[in-house]
Write a structure and sequence with these properties.
Layout: H1 10-24, E1 32-33, H2 34-40, H3 47-55, E2 68-72, E3 75-77, H4 83-95, E4 105-107, H5 108-111
Parallel strand pairs: 1-2
Antiparallel strand pairs: 2-3, 3-4
Helix pairs in contact: 1-3, 2-3
Length: 125
């Protein structure tokens, strides 16, 4: 039986729901990493947990899945390992105005999403 067809436990459903709720908050034209999604959902260090939750999503979940990328040295990386999925992700992000290099990387400093509640505060003088 495939992992995506197995019934999730109550904990698994709660984790998946939390991850999906964060992904739905990513605004158009921005991206977030799997690690960032996991941390915002309450699972710090859980990038693989976020990846698993995204992998089990269905079209009915209506997630902006294309906005979730891998992280490597400050660059978001198209994280889909099949050429068709990566091409679809690239096209969707390009339509949203996200610049993607020929190597499939995204400048997180420019296009990375940082929720207002998580932004560093300016220091007072």
């Amino acid at each position: 039986m495939a992992a995506s067809s197995r019934a999730l436990t109550a904990h698994g459903r709660a984790v998946r729901t939390a991850i999906h709720a964060v992904v739905r908050r990513i605004p158009r034209g921005k991206v977030a990493t799997y690690a960032q999604i996991a941390e915002l959902a309450g699972f710090p260090g859980g990038a693989r947990v976020a990846g698993a939750a995204m992998k089990t999503s269905t079209p009915a979940d209506r997630l902006p899945w294309q906005r979730v990328v891998g992280k490597r040295g400050g660059l978001g990386v198209i994280a889909i390992h099949d050429p068709v999925g990566a091409a679809v992700q690239r096209a969707l992000l390009t339509d949203e105005g996200v610049a993607i290099s020929d190597r499939g990387t995204i400048a997180l400093a420019r296009f990375g999403w940082l929720p207002l509640a998580r932004r560093p505060r300016a220091r007072r003088r």
